[in-house]
Amino acid sequence: MSTPVPQNRSRYRRNEIAITPWLFLIPGIAFFALYVIMPIFQSFWISFHEWDGLGEKTYVGTAHYERLLGIGDQNMDRKFEVSFWNNLKWLVLYLLAIPMGLFIALFLNQTVRGIRIYKSLFFFPFVISQVVVGLVFSWFYLPREGLLNAILGFFNMGSLNILGDPTMATYGIIAAGLWPQTAYCMILYLTGLNAVDPEQVEAARLDGAKGWRMLWYVILPQLKPATFIAFVVTIIGALRSFDLISIMTNGGPFGSTRVLSFYMFEESLSEFGFRMGYGSAIATVLFFIMLGFIVYFLYSMWREEKEAR
Amino acid sequence: MFPTPIEKKSRGYQMTYQGLLPVVLIMWLLPLIAVAVFSIRPDSDFTNGNYWGIPSSFNFLENYGKVFFESDMPRYLLNSVLITVPTVLGTIALSSMTGFALGVYKFKGNLLIFFMFIAGNFVPFQILMVPVRDLTVNMNLYDTKTGLILFHIAFQTGFCTLFMRNFIRALPFPLIEAARVEGVREWQIFLYVVLPLMKPALAALAVLIFTFIWNDYFWAVVLTQGPDAQPVTAGITAFNSQYRAAYHLMSAGSIVAALPPVLMFFLMQKHFIAGLTLGAVK
């Protein structure tokens, strides 16, 4: 008590700038490691086992992957194959949200009266939960009561049972997913358009650029950060699609709308017993598909960090 | 400004645009409008096949009253609130600390940890599902709100760290240096210098996380079961099986379930969009 600066306190104070960040990081890192980082590796581990979630795990080596991919004298898992192709459809068609979002953003980027309310109302679908979007669209598609068929009937164009038809159901769900996703891309582009340099636009106008050429050569390059984020969130959203499928068709009709994320859930927590090992193998495949994109995203962000320094 | 401001165009062009706006909006929101109309129809309209004609009576109070007083809906709504609010608080607490550490200090591994948070934020939920469910069961937290909250806090910390760190980076650094010269301790810099400047970021994240968590369905199904702990997104499916084919009640239920984030959005629009479009402009 007599010394004004005790020994241990001075050691902390001498290294304060070196120690403080770690003290601030520990709780966040601990939580994140426990719930996000470690489970990834645990899932790899479980995928090499047969496990019902309760009893002992039995090691089965790569048997699950062989069954999934049809290595050896067995056929590829049909459900896996369907899910995989559906995932590809999701990925490709979901990207339509980006040009559609840009289109609506260009349409709304004006300063007429009340435009702010229009912008928020256009953005509205993104705020609603996917569960409700799924319900809203499954009622919209209903063969008898649905508005879609009421409209088609009005124009004498027959009727469709979109979610009941295995060839159309996946596209019907993707269309429902595009609704909020387009809204998201729209808001990204509206923000981006706000920041477009007016002097460059004026200069380009004096040079006689307008319409498509102006958009392509002057505006789009300046919207690159918005496009990048739209791309990231759309890819991730496409591969994460689960809620809509679960709500709208529950994988049906005849399993035609399954995607990997849904098939994994179905296997792991199915009513015929929990096949967590097989489920984890599906999740691992999905993870590695996603990893390709994640590495690309991180690489782009990392390059920017380097430039910023 | 692009496209060319409408004021510079002809009068006819302006009129067309003004007229087109509401039409396009109605088409855009058509599925939602359909549900809103369903939700105020009386039961008899459905038995008579009057789906799209004029509602034979305006049953707003009856239908929504049933949702609130004759179903488990209020319980699910309360669960959602009790899950969402602690998650928002916990996430913001954790990520303002990690964001501060990664944004202010230069040390080895800074970028690596930062990128670990971003990467973890992008992984598919399914790769986490089995171990997280197992962990929750082992902690005796399966089918509790706490189990769901803990996971949500951990996962959302990834995205929020990205947000907070970039926000703190944009703050004027000399401010922190000046405080250091004055002999202010590091944790005091966090509390009294940085935190007050982060208010807009905190608000943006709060509304954003509120919406994300309120709308979560996957984890609600994986980690909870029944009306004791399930949030409204999962509860709505139980509600719908209770009122199978009663479209007026199911529609009213969905609208109630979707409403809180919508209100949040309209009240805090500026913050919400600032959070969502982070990085969309340089």
The secondary-structure element order of chain A is HHEEHHHHHHHHHHHHH
Rounded to an integer in angstroms, the radius of gyration calculated over CA atoms of chain A is 26 Å
The number of helical runs of chain B is 15
Indicate how many domains the architecture of chain A comprises. 1
Radius of gyration of chain B, whole Å: 24 Å
Parts with pLDDT < 50 across at least 5 consecutive residues of chain B: none
Helix content of chain A: 55-70%
Account of the 3D structure:
The complex is a heterodimer of chains A (309) and B (282). Chain A has a single domain (80-308), classed as MetI-like fold (Orthogonal Bundle). The radius of gyration of chain A is 26 Å and the shape is flat. Chain A is mainly α and 309 residues long. Chain A has helices spanning 7-14, 16-46, 63-69, 78-94, 97-108, 115-123, 130-140, 147-154, 169-194, 198-206, 211-222, 224-240, 243-248, 260-268, 276-308; strands at residues 49-50, 58-59. The mean pLDDT of chain A is 90. The longest helix of chain A has 33 residues, at 276-308. A two-stranded antiparallel sheet of chain A has the order 1-2. With 282 residues, chain B is mainly alpha-helical. Chain B is 74% helix and 0% strand. The longest helix of chain B has 32 residues, at 73-104. Chain B is flat and about 80 Å long. The mean pLDDT of chain B is 90. At the A-B interface, helix 2, helix 6, helix 7, helix 9 and helix 11 of A face helix 1, helix 2, helix 5, helix 6 and helix 7 of B.
